[in-house]
Amino acid sequence: MAKLFPKVSFVHDETPLSWAARQAAFHKGGRLVPFLNDLRIPAIDLARGLPGAVHRLCEIAGQDPVPVAWNTISSIGARRFSLRQHEFSAEFTTGVETRICPYCLAEDQYDQRRPDVAMRHRLAWRLAPVRTCRRHGTLLRDVRKDAWDDQLHELQAMQDIIAAELAVPEPCEPRAPSPLQTYVENRLEGHSGPIWLDGQGIDQASRAVEMVGGLIAFGPKQQAAELSQRMWDDAGRAGWGLAAGGEAEVVAFLEDTLKASTRSEGFASPRSAFGMLYAWLNSGHLSKDPGPIHALLRHVIIENTPLVPGRNVLGQPVARPKYSTLSSISKAENVHPSTLHNLLKAAGMSPKEGEGAGAGRLVVDYAKVVELLGDAKFAVPTTQVPYVLTCSRPVASALIELGLLSRIHDHRHLQSKVGKAVDGRSINKVLDVLRDRFDEVEELPVGMEPLARCAEKSRAKLKVILELLFKGHLSNVVRLDGQVGFAAIHLDPEEIKSVLESPPVGVSEDAYFLIH
Which candidate among 113, 129, 315, 477 keeps its CA 20 to 30 Å from the CA of 327? Predict the structure, then answer.
């Protein structure tokens, strides 16, 4: 294969396209595309950084391919690229914009016999977070011809544009590159940085710093689309310290931001609080993974904001939010607002009449409300317990005293008719014991009596008999067929007398007191 001669050496800080354009200027005195066509290298393949195109150019030019490949941004599909074993989205690059420092390019050409051969496009200028010239401290400029070959970043075709940029005075004083820019450049050289940032993709880390920084520097009303390159650079500087501090500092900042917005706005609105950060992460067109900042913001919103059950938060529904308004819970749980308000009021979770916001806007703990609703669904009024158990009121009262029946307020701290009601689940347990423990008979054995009659004959308190019954100290007990609950239970009063003469181990102190 014929070689290009003399050799135009690859410069360590330029791109393969830049090197190819310089060779076109040197060997042909013309433009890049015709030169590549002569070499049978599709320009689009070289622009995409395809290995075949890069290696063919190196082979023809007599150049070691290793440093060229090291500086090659390669397309890997789905608007994703790779450079030096780092993968990133297209937005991490400048796209079709050609970013330049006109002063660096002027220095390239100064006192050169072939200035078009000396002028090179730096690899760093292809990266979106690189916005400040490290040599001159000036803001880099984005230029383009608005032609199809803008993607080739051929400086030799932009001489007039570059000259015009050189004539434009610098609007600001020179300054050092931002810490974010330095981090990106160092990471591509293989150096490590802050742990939280190193734990995510280089583009994810960069964008998170800029978006959080934009919120810090310009507030929640600033839209990302309206930021200039100078403002993006300021955003990167503002967000660096926070992001470099790690996940805990980022979460603390997000929580404080939401609280501050709530105090000023009167209600918690993630969109109002987080501005461009929220808009970015909540975008329906978010085609790439934004990294851990997405999960952090979503966690902060869920943990600190009243939400409608089932609402999407940053692209994912929240079935059971931590906090919600009374009206939202009422709709989600299919409970009338008045019923729910009365229940919460009984639990001490609702303001008194006339206090604060209306009941519908009351913010409450969703899980606690669901628990209260669950209890309320099983509440049986005390007046109905004797009918359910087919027993007398004294028996029902004794069962409550023994703890065999529990009131709703025993474990939910309700103080109302609902709270004083008996938990239907405990009633079911008592009925299960009566049904499962004692044999059913069609005819009563001689001497067997109902509970109240046994109390009379044995001269024992109902509470004592019930304790002996449920603790298994009475063996001569039957359940009459055709009856339910305590109406079916019959005991032997003589056995009760016998047991009371020598109380068994395990009987409560109250029972001993009543026996003696």
Answer: 315
Q: What is the pLDDT of residue 514?
A: 52
pLDDT at 265: 67
Burial class (CB in 10 A: 0-12, 13-18, 19+), 343: buried
**Nearest-5° Cα angle at 365, 360 to 370:** 90
Using the Cα atoms of residue 71, residue 30, residue 23 and residue 45 in order, give the sign of their dihedral: positive
**Cα Rg of the chain (Å, integer):** 40
For residue 474, give the nearest of 460, 453, 495, 501 by alpha carbon.
Answer: 495
Q: Does residue 342 come out as left (phi exceeding 0), alpha (psi in the -120 to 50 range) or beta?
A: alpha
Q: What angle do CA 459, 461, 466 make, to 5 degrees?
A: 120
How many residues make up the chain in this entry? 516
Distance of alpha carbon 126 from its chain centroid, rounded?
32
Strands 439-441 and 477-480: parallel
Element (H, E) at 66: helix 65-70
Q: So what's the pLDDT on residue 324?
A: 87
Q: Which of 348, 335, 360, 359 is nearest to 412 (CA)?
A: 348
pLDDT score, position 413:
46
Q: Which 3 state secondary structure label does DSSP give 12?
A: coil
CB 273, CB 300: distance < 8 Å: no
Contacts of 355 (CB under 8 A, 6+ apart): none
DSSP string, 225-273: GG--HHHHHHHHHHHHHHHHT-HHHHHHHHHHHHHHHHHHHSS--HHHH
- At 354 the pLDDT is 37
Q: Are 16 and 23 in contact (CB under 8 A)?
A: no
Residues of the chain with pLDDT under 70: 1, 265-266, 285, 350-361, 409-419, 506, 509-516
Q: What is the pLDDT of residues 364-419, one digit of tens each?
A: 888 888 888 877 778 888 899 999 999 999 999 999 999 999 987 654 444 444 55
Give the C-alpha separation, 93 to 351, whole Å. Answer: 55
